[in-house]
C-alpha cells in the first residue's frame, strides 16, 4: 500500500499546486474509495497538506506578493480555528463529516460558477477582524473534514472580496500552511494521526506540487475557472457515490 499512497500523493500534489488547494478535497475521496474511513482519511490528508502547502507557497511566492498581508491575517485565524478541529473529529461521526464535506463542495461549485474568472476593478478593503474571523471559521470547518480550507476560502475571496481567481488560489494555498499545521497538532493530540501514511503521501505530493504550479501559470483565467468547476463536480460525484453506497 506504500507505493499506492505515494502515487496518491503525486496526484494530490499536482492538484494542490494547480488549483491552490491543500489537496484534501481530492485525497479524502480517494482514500475513502480504497477503504479508509473518514477520520483516517482526514488524518492522512492533513499531514499531507503540511508538506504540499509549505512547498507550494514557496514556489508561488513571486506570484502572490500582493495578497500576503491579507493572507497572514486570514492564516492566523485559520490556525486558531484549526486547533479546535481535533475536538470536532473526536465527537462527530464519520457520516456527519462526510455530509459536511458534500455540503461544502456544493457551496463552492455554486459560488465559483457565478463569480468572474478575473476581476479588474479595485479590490475591497476589509478589516483585520473580519479577515481573522473568516480564517478562524474556515480553519475549524476545513480541518475537521480533512481539507485545507481553499475550497471554502477561494469562493469567498472571489465572490465577496473581489480577488481574481488565480490570486485567490495562491492566497488559499498560503492559508493552508497555517490551518494544516494547527490541524496536524490538534488531530495528533487527540490520537487520530496516522504518521507513516501521512508522511508517504506528503513526500509524494512534493513532486506533484512542482508540476502543478508550473501548469497553473500556463493556463488562461477563463479556462482555469472551468477546470476548477470540473474538479469540484467530479469530487462531488465521488463523495455522493461513496456516501450513498456506504449507507
Q: Any descriptors?
A:
247 residues, mainly alpha, 11 helices, 78% helix, 0% strand, globular, cell membrane, transmembrane, TSUP/Inactive_protease-like, membrane
Task: Walk me through the structure.
By secondary structure, this protein is an all-alpha fold. It has one domain. It is built from 11 helices and no strands. The protein has helices at residues 2-19, 24-33, 38-60, 68-82, 85-91, 94-113, 128-144, 150-159, 165-189, 195-216, 221-246.
Secondary-structure content class: mainly alpha
Number of separate helices: 11
User: Which geometry do the CA atoms define?
Assistant: globular
When the domains are counted, the total is: 1
Q: What is the end-to-end distance?
A: 26 Å
Radius of gyration: 16 Å
Mean pLDDT: 82
The amount of beta strand, in percent, is under 5%
Order of helices and strands: HHHHHHHHHHH
Q: Poorly predicted ranges (pLDDT <50, ≥5 residues)?
A: none
Sheet of most strands: none
| Helix percent band | over 70%
GO cellular component, one term: plasma membrane
Membrane topology: Multi-pass membrane protein
Protein name: Probable membrane transporter protein
Transmembrane segments: 6-34, 41-59, 71-90, 97-117, 129-158, 170-189, 195-215, 227-245
Amino acid at each position: 500500500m506504500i507505493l499506492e499512497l505515494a502515487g496518491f500523493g503525486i496526484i494530490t500534489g499536482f492538484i494542490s499546486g494547480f488549483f491552490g488547494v491543500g489537496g484534501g478535497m481530492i485525497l479524502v475521496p480517494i482514500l475513502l474509495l480504497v477503504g479508509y474511513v473518514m477520520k483516517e482519511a482526514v488524518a492522512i490528508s492533513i499531514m499531507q497538506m503540511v508538506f504540499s502547502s509549505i512547498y507550494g507557497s514557496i514556489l508561488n511566492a513571486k506570484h502572490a506578493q500582493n495578497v500576503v498581508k491579507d493572507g497572514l491575517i486570514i492564516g492566523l485565524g485559520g490556525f486558531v480555528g484549526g486547533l479546535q478541529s481535533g475536538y470536532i473529529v473526536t465527537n462527530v461521526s464519520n457520516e456527519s463529516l462526510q455530509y459536511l464535506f458534500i455540503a461544502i463542495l456544493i457551496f463552492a461549485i455554486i459560488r465559483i460558477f457565478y463569480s468572474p474568472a478575473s476581476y479588474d476593478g479595485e479590490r475591497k478593503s476589509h478589516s483585520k477582524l473580519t479577515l481573522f474571523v473568516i480564517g478562524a471559521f474556515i480553519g475549524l470547518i476545513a480541518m475537521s473534514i480533512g481539507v485545507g480550507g481553499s475550497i471554502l476560502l477561494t469562493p469567498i475571496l472571489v465572490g465577496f472580496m473581489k480577488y481574481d481567481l488565480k490570486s485567490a488560489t495562491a492566497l488559499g494555498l498560503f492559508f493552508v500552511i497555517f490551518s494544516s499545521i494547527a490541524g496536524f497538532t490538534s488531530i495528533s493530540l487527540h490520537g487520530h494521526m496516522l504518521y507513516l501514511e501521512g508522511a508517504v503521501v506528503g513526500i509524494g505530493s512534493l513532486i506533484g506540487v512542482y508540476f502543478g504550479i508550473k501548469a497553473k501559470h500556463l493556463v488562461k483565467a477563463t479556462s482555469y475557472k472551468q477546470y476548477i468547476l470540473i474538479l469540484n463536480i467530479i469530487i462531488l460525484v465521488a463523495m455522493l457515490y461513496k456516501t450513498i453506497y456506504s449507507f
